[in-house]
Design brief:
- Four copies of one chain form a homotetramer.
- By secondary structure, chain A is an alpha/beta fold.
- In chain A, about 35% of the residues lie in helices and about 15% in strands.
- Chain A contains twelve helices and 14 strands.
- The longest helix of chain A has 20 residues.
- The relative contact order of chain A is 0.12.
- The C terminus of chain A is likely disordered.
- Chains in contact: A-B, A-C, A-D, B-C, B-D, C-D.
- Chains A, B, C, D: This is 3-deoxy-7-phosphoheptulonate synthase.
Chain lengths: ~350, ~350, ~350, ~350
């Protein structure tokens, strides 16, 4: 249940904390107080009369909901603002392969508008016999490459035991699609204050991904963005997954977290990455995360879906142009989507 | 198998016709001859030596394939050019409700860039007890409204017995998603020369829709466009279907037919129609088909997904602006997608 | 709305017919009267007081629902009883290939417990260039083969124009999965009194198939059975479709029509047909429809999923044994499923 | 690649180990040697000539494949034999709720043929605010209840850090569907010698689950069983998931690990659990894992899908009867499925 109070009614907030804080999860955002597991009848007369509005039908993922937190969350890292009216480009190779390579890729990413460098050092591979990443050494390469070009780092953490170590190197944790419901891991990143990019699982419903994000929020970390990377459907002959463009306005309506599109994993083939990336931008996404490589045929992982530098330039130019166009035109649509 | 000849080698074409025409399906497009069910060994020496290239690995839907017909198909109706570099807006109410209403909607559609008026007179409703459409009277209203505003008509034909009658009123037949594999109906419209908009079935793979289109082409009608209207996936809580934006570049690679996006049926809710429509345009679609209504609460069908006139104006303005932007920027992506 | 009356209250039935019959769809089953599109307030005082119970929350497919028709429908053909406690085996080749072949297959089917002979004369093939069936000649062969072995015939009708002609030869119409929402065809078989086996579409929900069946019932034909033949999911590498065993008890709860399992199309490969068929029987299906062939490598269609005669014998023996076992054991489960 | 040798050719095995062991993953099963990442040309002449057969086309999950390990794996715990011709019943409540309750449920399970007691102490709940399980105390209750009735324990481990602790109490680790690709966890249980029941993820393909099992095998633990608990499809209105009965014979063909069916999570509603469980048995499963509860309305989790004791008795009686029937009848089908 959410109790909406007048602005600055700290007295009632204190009263509610005292009344319910010991036995219930209770969250406060400005003048809104969410108390889990109570009904209107549990409120005292003074609490009831202080309420401007009492909202009983709230989603399970209450902290992530617009009902509790109407304004857009804007995530501030050293080099980026993510969410709201901002548009953020993230790019880099699937895996960190060597210091020289990641540095070269950082230069390409930065030159084409990216402010966040992606790269995997711990890789969740389908087969145990595939390349599993360079580990901590890869993280060092990634960090140095990003620093050289004044970029932020986003990289995957696969394991709650690794959260502290990976956290030394990264500005944004990525939770991969396969780990979207690894609740131990979600709780672990929720105990940090490092922003998290949570990827929607291959068969996760909108409600599933919001509930997963709530595991992070429940630990106190509200710097969350949600990334769509394609879902599993009955047809994957030509694209690896089906990118669900509709999830962008749907999530923007339901949650205040920024929504990012990963067209690379959705497409699975270079030739389809740009159309899907642009579709995501046109649907209103707050950013893209794109795999790039200057020699895809020899990439250690996911080469077939990497964009060449010149292909990435084209995607990035068009993405920013579409975003500018949509931002400048009367934004009824953007509002309608919220 | 496809035999590629030198331009203007009519002699070999005649020879192939004579050799295989009685026992095999044989199709000619410029200098390309497709013969079904033969192998290289069936060719005579002179046929082999006349071939510039022999392509043995061809899709079942050979007439629709880029291998057989590399250039874009451009469909010409009285008021529209569909395909190639053109962008076509189609709009109108789900059902034709009355002559006044369809005329009013035609005015709205035309004023906002549409050249094709849509409207259903025969409605494929899930329940037999729902409104089934005005029938032929509805077609008359639709035709008059379109004529008044110099527009083309697109309307659904549900039944092979109705093809002739509906053909008197429409410029484009729509084959609905539920009828995508109604082969009798496909053959019937294939025997006409009226353009066909074939909607992808809810669970049709890319190959399925191409094979369905081949039933039309096999009858001699090559004025085909394919419309994506969302597919069935595991999550339809917030959108009615999942719009598969990736199918746009995939189809553009595989086939020469124009690809149209129907964001209304994909979204199922007004607030998500515009983001999905724009995503389709950014993915490269040749046009949109959109449901509009000036009083959705009282629409006889599908009101919840209809755009109001002012919402349609916003979608249309942004759609044309994105299309212009993409067409004017260096089109490496468009080529890459083919 | 359904008004439940006392047994034999013909007066109130007559009153309701007179009151609502001109403007509403109205259906009577024993002491239950379903009137579409009215509410409790529309009833007169005498109608209200005559009602034992008024059920306002009824499914759209009201005639097919257990709420309207609590007892099992049992379909009686010349040689078979389908539904209730009966178990019916249907078998035959995918296509009728020749008179000799279908006669040989009829012998195999009959010798192993089948009372219904299946075989296609009009084939809904994905590609227009594939074998489309022998047409009416095939129906003649099929009819003669069935008659020789005292069997019923089930065969697909693809087209409303063919209903009359096919009806001369068959005891049961099959509506194929691709035509499940071909409403013209459903209406056409609904106007006959020949039983119909309606196959669930590849992506049809339970509600979709029930609504499709209602198109048949709305025409006056209530001899309907529903066949599950596998649905489309994200994995079809090893089986052609995913057989939804759960649909058997779900449909048995919701509808009074018999539920049949088609393990052949679900499996797509001979080696998986028997386990799936037995799973269907154990889930409670009223019958199986199975493809058999004595030379699958040369079958004109669907050879890879056909059972050899000795494989069919094994399936049939085990199927009847499981059915007997379940019927003889205390049937709490069967009841629970309804 | 797999090199098949004569029985007892230890010399060639030693030669292969020496030749490839330092640089390649190499696995030996009786007379079969799998070496990852080599081709026929990498073999020496003596290795080639010692080979009875060289199999180059092997699946990524080589240790789990029938190609490498043709015989059924049979898992031996203190009270159970799982796999081969054995049939194993596992039952218990979703969550361990109290010592009295789990003990009462153990009595019910044992009295009806179960030799393995299930119960969750760490619960992977969709929402962070739901009951998360009793933790280690729950494991103690579970262990004592099982010991009192001479049963084995199966319980979920959610976290690699918990593997050691949970391992003190359980005979079989359960890896839940949401963690099927939590590779850190898979590796951790792979380092133990405690049997593992790996649940197929909601959208995991057959290949995905086999590759996940290989993470366990790669650590040296080959006591693996795979459990089907329903997959996500487009229709979950009446059942929670779609049970894929076909996966039983498919997995039995591809892998030597026992296949278990969990009808409770597939059904999601008590009334559909028994039909689905029996379908799994008829499809050939080596066992069932079933949720039971004597007061479902007050269960701390998943009450709506729990069987009452008398319902479980009926399922168990029928399941063993069907299994006996199938085992006693000529087993061509079972062989065909392998």
């Amino acid at each position: 249940m959410i109790i909406v109070l007048n602005r600055n009614d700290q007295n009632t907030i204190d009263e509610l904390q005292e009344h319910f804080g010991n036995n219930h999860d209770i969250f406060v955002h400005h003048n809104r107080v969410a108390v889990q597991g109570i009904t209107r009848d549990d409120l005292s007369d003074s609490e009831k009369s202080a309420a401007v509005e009492i909202i009983e039908d709230v989603p399970a993922a209450v902290q992530g909901s617009r009902v509790f937190h109407p304004e857009d969350t804007i995530i501030r890292t050293k080099h980026s603002m993510i969410g709201g009216d901002n548009f953020t480009m993230m790019a880099g190779p699937c895996s960190v392969e060597s210091e020289e390579h990641i540095t070269r890729m950082a230069a390409v990413a930065k030159a084409n508008g990216a402010t966040v460098l992606r790269g995997g050092a711990f890789k969740p591979r389908t087969s145990p016999y595939s390349f599993q990443g360079l580990g901590e050494e890869g993280l060092r390469f990634l960090r140095r490459a990003a620093d050289q070009y004044n970029m932020d780092v986003v990289t995957e953490v696969m394991d709650d035991e690794h959260v502290e170590m990976v956290g030394k190197y990264t500005d944004i944790f990525q939770i991969g699609a396969r780990n979207m419901q690894n609740f131990s891991l979600l709780k672990a990143v929720g105990r940090t204050n490092i922003p998290v990019m949570l990827k929607r699982g291959m068969s996760a419903t909108v409600d599933d991904v919001l509930n997963a994000s709530e595991y992070i929020a429940a630990g106190g970390n509200h710097n969350i963005m949600i990334a769509e990377r394609g879902i599993r459907t009955f047809d994957n002959k030509y694209t690896r997954n089906t990118m669900d463009a509709g999830v962008v306005p749907v999530l923007q309506k339901l949650t205040h977290y920024p929504v990012i599109i990963d067209p690379s994993h959705a497409a699975g083939h270079t030739e389809f990455v740009t159309p899907l990336g642009l579709a995501g931008v046109a649907a209103g996404a707050s950013g893209l995360v794109v795999e790039i490589h200057d020699d895809p045929a020899h990439a250690l992982s996911d080469g077939p879906q990497a964009l060449l530098p010149e292909q990435f330039k084209e995607l990035s130019d068009k993405a920013f142009a579409i975003r500018d166009l949509l931002t400048e035109m009367p934004a009824e649509q953007a509002e309608a989507g919220r």
